[in-house]
Every structure is written in structure tokens, then in C-alpha cells.
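Most newcomers find our protein records easier to grasp once they have seen one. To make this concrete, we reproduce a full record directly below:

===
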Amino acid sequence: MYDAHTHFIPPDVLNWLVENKQSVSAVFDKRDANKADFLSINGKWAFELKPSFVSEELFLREQAKAGVQHTLISPIPQLFLYEFQSEITRELVQVYNQALAAIASDKPGRLAALGTVSLNAPEQAAADLETGMDLGLKGAIIGPGHNGKLLSDAGFTPLWEAANRLKAVIFIHPLLNTDPRIQTRMMPNLVGVPWETTVAAADLLLSGLLDTYPNVKILLGHGGGFLPYQIGRLDKGYDMWNQVSSNLQAKPSEYLKRFWFDSVLWNAHALEYLVQVVGEDHIVPGSDYPFDLNELPTRILSGDGYRSLLELDR
């Protein structure tokens, strides 16, 4: 079994956070004597800093216990640091990417890794990606946009050009939605997280970016959000409106098959539907481990999508 959606915080990154607590407003809060600290950055998105986030031995042991033989590890979205000055973001990017590359290179038959990039400075983000892949990373995990701009915005062109040239994996991972209507009952996570992926992916699809940069392997978290389950609406819009079809060479449902999707859906019927729509070869097993809402897929996938995404058979 494989796992393409996991998160890890190497010791060097944790040390950097402790040393730079003031500049990034990092708070380690002991809420419960029986639990680990909760970590928040800049007053946002606090989460329990479980030992499995920071202990490589425990992380690998728990993955092995779950039957996972190969894992793709990624930075956590709370540490993207896009809202800070790019110098701060770049400093943590360098620490994070070097640490993950070292961990993955030490266990090449067991681990692969994605890095993070300075999405708040796209030219630097392109350099971050290239440097990280030179270290052995497979690509990068990024948020669904920055500063109100979606990923198809021309400002992000340097990153997409580099990703296309490098044939990088770009894992689009949502951040918590800040819509004031859904700020209770955990809805920023339950509804906002898949919604952010939906908006980002629909924008990329409808913009024509998938034709412009065909070599980029775009992975969508949480089964692609809500997009795959409303693709018929996009197809209907393609038939009806020039504003939808003008940038595309085929129906949206055909472009949907160019993305990769993880299996983090918590519903066997939803996963079966996704397999029918995009094909099992573009779905990768994922768990979102070790966050609270994590699960291994209830359906055993062949692993073809995972191996293809990471080119493990080459």
C-alpha cells in the first residue's frame, strides 16, 4: 500500500520555529495535560502537535503498522508562511526542503518528499522548486492561491514555467476558508477545506493552464474537493457559454482526467464514483496522516496512479 498525502515536521523545522517564535508569532499552547502542545502560527489554524508529526521513528512505525510500504511526505500547510515577508518565508522554505530531502534520500525505497515554496514571491518560488528538486524532492505542495489571487493569475507564471520544465508534482492543498458564514461548528475545515480545492482546481481547468503547462503533475487533495461531483455542471456550461469554452480544447470532464486525486474521502461510494470519472490510474491512496481527520482508503487501489505520479518504476 502507498500513501501520497501525509505531513511531517522535521526537527530542524521545529527548531527554526522555536528560534523564530517572535517573527512568526508561533505559540506552543498546552491545552490539555494529557495531550501534546497545540501549535498556531500568527494566531491561525491551531493544531495538536502530535508526536507523530515530529518523530520520524514513530511516523514510519505507524505507517508500517497501517500496511503502508511507501510514503510521500509533505510540509504542513500551517507552515506555508505566505502572509509574512518573503525573506521569512524563503528562510523556512530552505530549512524545510533541505530537511525533507535528507530524510527521503536516507530511505529511498520507503520515502519520497515534496517541498514548500515562497508562493508570496513567484520568482523565488520557481527558484525554490528547482533547488528542492535538485536535492531530490519530487515537487512541491502549495496553497490554492495567495493574497486573493488564484493560481491561474499571470503573477504565478514563473512557478508554472519552472514546474512544467522540471515535470514537477504540484500538490494543491487547501487552507482554512475564512468566509464569515462558516466560522462555526468546524465548518472552516469540514466545508471550507474542500471548497478551497474546488475553486482552485476549477480555475486552473477553465483557464486553459493545463494545456499551457502539460508536463506539470497537479495533485488535488481530499478527492478534488467538490469539483468531480459537479463536473456535469461545468460540461453543461461549456456547451452553453463561450466564457466557459473559449480557453478549452475539450469538455471540462476531459480535463478533469489530467489531474491526480488522492483518496481522502471517508466514503467508499464517493471513491468509487471518482474511479469511474477519472480512472484509477489518476487516483493515489492518501490518508492526511497524522492530522485528526485522517484515514486510509477503504478501497485497495492498485497503486498505478501513485507510481505514475512519482515515476517510481523508472
